[in-house]
Specification:
This protein is an alpha+beta fold. Helix content is 41%, strand content 20%.
């Protein structure tokens, strides 16, 4: 029997489509745990069936230490966790420690002329191992071997592209250069005068590599005015020029498993998405659309609405709120086999993209019914929309519009905030897909792949250079 590890447990459950008779939406890995995701908030009875099914799969297929880590409701989905444990092992290594470790190993290649031919070289080199033990600290230093392969692959992929002599130092989140870049981000606004917002929404770089840091900072400072007139485009352009001149690169890091190799790629160097060549080949006929209208659930109806092509999925669902109040739709991507979600598209940029493509949908929940009376008297002909979409979209568990209407009315009349908000979101889904799929641009693959790119923070023509150019060290 196979000894359980995060990797083989993840791979086992990725092959399954259902657990406890419920569709398994996707499987991801976070630190020391494997996560199993199911659409909607599940009843206690269903959760018990799923948990028993998970444990049966584990006991039949794996030996070693593992156990259930409980479940939680997050972003409209129920998530079960599996902990693959070893006695005395600490939890997941904090992100800042992971990043500092990678920056440290790559800086040693620059400053100490280190040459690593394998992960074992990193662990056997006294200077490198002592430095990593110091970074990881007593709580996590036994995890260093787990990260050695990632660090080896990161430096191998980067220095395959660049010569060590081209750079001076790698810096991570808590150091001077990252703080400086964040400050510049706070000084600029978009073309419409809005603040950029959270640094990570604009730039996913985890560490930075620089040549002549003082000179680079002066170039950026000269380009970005301190009087509030500086634009995001100016900051992105100066970063782009520095990247092309090989003076500065922000790097987004991904963990690389023992059986995987890393690659370096540029992101947002232009609007062309080279690293997603398969997405660029998608035709409109390759795309499937689905609204889940399964009834009889705890919330009255399943929440899911989906755009599916290849290994990619865009979830079109209500934005969860702490008090289950009415809310707008959100658009988030999932990449199968990537170990998790692709990300959520900034809602304001989705609205801009819709407008630029001449699509009338407004993502404003206040424009939609909040009770049964408003639904019955709505000026929007939901029956016509529903029937129009039946030739364009898959209604999962469809029982016809009358059944859909009766269920929506029951949900509004239930007096339960969650059921009422889900009812409204289902109506919003109908209108969103109707407006998109009955427009000329919405009948082209580019519209849907652009929506996917927004969720993973890639620039597309209709929104301009909204995201920062950067490099990425990811799984090959």
């Amino acid at each position: 029997m196979t000894v359980a590890s995060n990797r083989n447990v993840l791979q086992h459950f990725e092959k399954l489509s259902k657990l406890g008779n419920k569709t398994l939406a996707f499987v991801s890995e976070r630190g020391d745990i494997v996560e199993l995701w199911f659409d909607g908030k599940l009843s206690k009875q269903i959760k018990t069936k799923i948990e028993n099914d998970i444990l049966e799969h584990l006991t039949k297929n794996f030996s070693g230490g593992y156990g259930m880590g409980g479940d939680r409701f997050f972003d409209g989905e129920t998530v079960f966790t599996i902990k693959v444990s070893q006695t005395g092992t600490a939890g997941a290594v904090p992100t800042d420690i992971q990043e500092e470790g990678s920056a440290y190993v790559m800086t040693l290649v620059l400053t100490d002329d280190k040459k690593f031919e394998s992960a074992a070289d990193i662990l056997s080199d006294t200077t490198t191992r002592n430095g990593l033990d110091r970074i990881f600290g007593n709580a996590y230093k036994e995890k260093v071997p787990e990260w050695a392969h990632s660090y080896f692959e990161h430096q191998k992929a980067f220095f395959k592209k660049f010569q060590p002599a081209q750079w001076d130092v790698f810096e991570h989140g808590g150091q001077d250069l990252m703080s400086f870049i964040k400050e510049q981000c706070e000084l600029v606004t978009t073309d419409t005068g809005e603040k950029v917002g959270n640094y990570t929404t604009w730039n996913p770089s985890d560490i930075w590599v620089v040549k002549d840091k003082g000179h680079v900072k002066r170039i950026i400072e000269q380009a970005i005015q301190k009087d509030g007139t500086a634009k995001l485009l100016e900051l992105n352009n100066v970063l782009l020029k520095l990247m092309k001149d090989k003076k500065l690169i922000g790097l987004s890091l991904k963990k690389v498993k023992d059986n995987q190799k890393a690659k370096f790629s540029y992101v947002n160097m232009s609007t062309k998405k080279k690293e997603f060549a398969k997405v660029e080949e998608v035709k409109f006929s390759d795309i499937d659309f689905e609204i889940d209208v399964t009834t009889g659930t705890k919330d009255g109806m399943q929440q899911g609405g989906y755009v599916l092509f290849g290994n990619y999925r865009i979830n079109v669902i209500r934005t969860p709120t702490s008090n289950d109040s009415f809310s707008n739709l959100k658009f988030e991507s999932v990449i199968s086999g990537s170990g998790g979600r692709g990300g959520a598209a900034p809602v304001d940029l989705v609205s801009k993209m819709l407008t630029s493509n001449g699509i009338q949908f407004q993502n404003r929940h206040r424009d939609y019914p909040t009770n049964a009376s408003e639904f019955n008297n709505s000026k929007i002909n939901y029956e016509s929309i529903y029937n129009n979409l039946k030739s364009k979209i898959n209604f999962k568990s469809d029982k016809g519009y009358n059944h859909f209407k009766d269920t929506i009315l029951e949900m509004y009349r239930s007096g339960e905030a969650k059921k009422k908000s889900v009812a409204q979101s289902k109506l919003m889904q109908l209108v969103f897909f109707y407006e998109c799929l009955n427009s000329s641009k919405g009948q082209k693959a580019e519209f849907w792949t652009d929506l996917f790119y927004l969720s993973i923070k890639r620039n597309v023509a209709v929104i301009g250079n909204r995201f920062a150019p950067h490099g990425k060290l990811d799984v090959k």
